[in-house]
Design goal:
binds magnesium ion, Rossmann fold, elongated, alpha/beta, ABC transporter transmembrane region fold, binds cytidine-5'-triphosphate, 21 helices
Length: 612
């Protein structure tokens, strides 16, 4: 038997999306005890229901075994003897077993679904909790679509195995073993003749399982590629349309989509070859029983009832075998999925609180970077020996060319990443020695790329303090100069924000982010100004809002606006990961260095723009 899997040499090529999104497929082992043990723990809280499901399974299996035997008793005991009352009894008994099978199967399915959905929910909750504490560095390097596929697809195959799979395994093994025992006890000779098709069966199953393993692994990595490609293209839709690349993007998507289809068809055609061949072997066995059993009955060595019971058992014999071989593919999918899910769960949060980490006391506002060096990945340093002291209440502006390391400095102060060397101190306390929560609660961040969640405008403003009354929300919005434009929105503060805030302008988003920071009332404020993407009116509003927001707080402002820079207590010029100049605006201008150059090239442009 040869199967073509389309995986090798089919000429369709993996496509680059597949390489990007599907390549971290783990080499799926058929069985990995470590994975199984880890996930079995999720069944523990539900052990009573699982035990009940197992019990029902065993009863169901026994009942299923009983009915062919009742057939034999009916034929040999009552039909041939013409015992009508006995026949009625057997018929009722048989009806009873059918009702029993029905009830046990319904009960078992219900219990498994109940447990299964709870396991699924818990597992997803654990994954999500872990994703939330993973360092930003993890999310920097992992494709969103693929992480989504872990939480949705991989978790569900694990659950398939845990709930359905385990029970199928047990019930099928029981049924199979039961049939063998009953057959052997009714007629050892006929049983052995029937089993003569088994070696063929085993060979077919073995061949199938081996091919299926490769084929189903292909389908899994290709569906991950489809999800990954889709997620990226949807978030990049604006750029795709702007550059009129719909055609090329469609082509790329079609390629992964077709690759997924072909892999799936190839995997399924394995089943299409295998399942009928199992059926064929079943019919072969039926023929053997009919022929050999018939001859034995004719010779008077066996009763008709035994042969009929055998015929019934033979048809039941092959179903568990089919199911078990299917279970093998479930097992593999679950092992591969399980390894990947554990890959996430076992990724240690890089930024981890020390066991002895205390609470950060109320912050006065001194910020210090002491000999800080930093790299995001590997050895590529993006900051080199940065030293910076900001006294409480001061505003320090960071300026410098793009890619200089300004946002990176902000990231370290908020402790989104760990310093590679040196230390970040707040009020002379190493940020290492306190919990992240207690630290971040006292810090505010207005990111370079203002992010809004779906929900109302008001909810976005009170994001850091969800139970803030609306009056305070409005108060914060007023301070942030956002109140007027918010009330002009169709539903005011209750206007629903579309995903990513697309129904607001960038400037409006920024104003809302500033209001969010105002409400949080942080002691230290980090403001990563978006490049001047706002009109002069909004610019003035933001400036005014900032002036109020910065008063009385320590502020690190990554500045693109001349006015912010001018008003700062100190300006640090960052270049190539180093602070190369520092001082006040006039001092730096007089120095004739990088600041002057930047000022002349960049700020003057903005200034003229503003003045126009
Ligand atoms: N970088 C990185 N990984 C990240 C973020 C940044 O490797 N997750 C690198 C960038 O390639 C850049 C350097 O770190 O070379 C500094 O980046 P950043 O601090 O973000 O630069 P900024 O000075 O903030 O630049 P901009 O003005 O464009 O915001
Ligand atoms: Mg930046």
């Amino acid at each position: 038997m040869t199967f073509s899997i389309g995986a090798t040499g089919s000429g369709m090529g993996p496509g680059h999306a597949l390489e990007r999104f599907g390549s971290d497929e783990v080499e799926g082992r058929a069985f990995n005890a470590h994975v199984v043990v880890r996930f079995l723990a999720y069944l523990r809280p539900h052990w009573q229901r699982m035990a009940a499901a197992f019990l029902l399974t065993i009863i169901g299996a026994a009942l299923a075994l009983a009915s062919p035997y009742l057939l034999k008793v009916a034929i040999d005991g009552y039909i041939t003897g013409g015992d009508a009352a006995g026949l009625t009894r057997i018929a009722l008994l048989m009806a009873g077993t059918f009702v029993g099978v029905y009830l046990t199967s319904a009960g078992q399915q219900y219990l498994l679904a109940w447990v299964g959905q709870r396991v699924l929910t818990t597992l997803r909750a654990h994954l999500f909790r872990h994703l939330q504490i993973l360092p930003l560095g993890y999310h920097d390097t992992h494709i969103v679509g693929v992480t989504i596929s872990r939480v949705i697809n991989d978790v569900s195959v694990i659950n398939d195995l845990l709930s359905q799979g385990l029970v199928t395994l047990i019930s099928d093994t029981l049924v199979l073993g039961g049939i063998i025992v009953v057959m052997l006890s009714m007629s050892p000779r006929l049983a052995l003749v029937t089993f003569s098709v088994l070696p063929l069966m085993l060979l077919a199953t073995f061949l199938f399982a081996r091919q299926a393993r490769v084929a189903f692994r292909q389908t899994r990595s290709r569906i991950a590629a489809v999800v990954g490609d889709l997620a990226e293209d949807i978030s990049g839709m604006r750029v795709i349309q702007a550059f009129a690349q719909e055609g090329a993007t469609q082509e790329r998507f079609d390629k992964v989509n077709r690759a997924n289809r072909d892999a799936y068809i190839a995997a399924m055609s394995l089943s299409f070859v295998f399942l009928p061949s199992v059926e064929f072997l079943g019919m072969l066995a039926t023929g053997v029983v009919l022929w050999f059993g018939g001859l034995t009955v004719a010779r008077g060595e066996l009763t008709l009832g035994v042969v009929v019971a055998f015929l019934a058992y033979v048809t039941r014999f092959f179903q568990p075998i089919q199911e078990l071989s299917q279970l093998y593919t479930t097992l593999q999918a679950a092992m591969a999925g399980g390894e990947r899910v554990l890959g996430i769960l076992d990724t240690a949060p890089e930024v981890k609180d020390k066991p002895a980490a205390g609470e950060m006391p109320p912050i006065a506002g001194k910020v210090e970077l002491r000999h800080v060096s930093f790299s995001y990945r590997g050895d590529t340093r993006v900051l080199h020996d940065v030293n910076l002291v900001i006294e409480p209440g001061q505003t320090v502006a960071l300026v410098g060319p793009t890619g200089a390391g300004k946002t990176s400095i902000a990231n370290l102060i908020a402790r989104f990443y760990e310093v590679t060397e040196g230390a970040v101190l707040i009020d002379n306390v190493d940020v290492h020695d306190v919990t992240q929560r207690s630290l971040r609660r006292q810090m505010g961040l207005v990111p370079q790329d203002p992010f809004l969640f779906s929900g109302t405008v008001a909810d976005n403003i009170r994001f850091g303090r969800p139970d803030t009354p609306i009056a305070e929300v409005e108060e914060a919005a007023r301070l942030a100069n956002s109140h007027d434009f918010i009330t002009a929105l169709p539903d005011g503060y209750n206007t629903e924000i579309l995903e990513g805030g697309v129904n607001l302008s960038i400037g409006q988003r920024q104003l809302i982010c500033i209001a969010r920071a105002v409400l949080a009332d942080p002691r230290i404020l980090i403001l990563d100004e978006a490049t001047s993407s706002v009109d002069t009116m909004t610019e003035a509003l933001i400036q005014d809002a900032l002036r109020r927001l910065l008063a009385g707080r320590t502020a690190i402002v990554i500045a693109h606006r001349l006015s912010t820079v001018r008003n700062a207590d100190a300006i640090c010029v960052v270049n190539g990961g180093r602070i190369v100049e520092r001082g006040r605006h006039e001092e730096l201008l007089a120095r004739d260095g990088l600041y002057r150059e930047l000022y002349e090239r960049q700020f003057v442009d903005i200034k003229t723009e503003v003045n126009n």
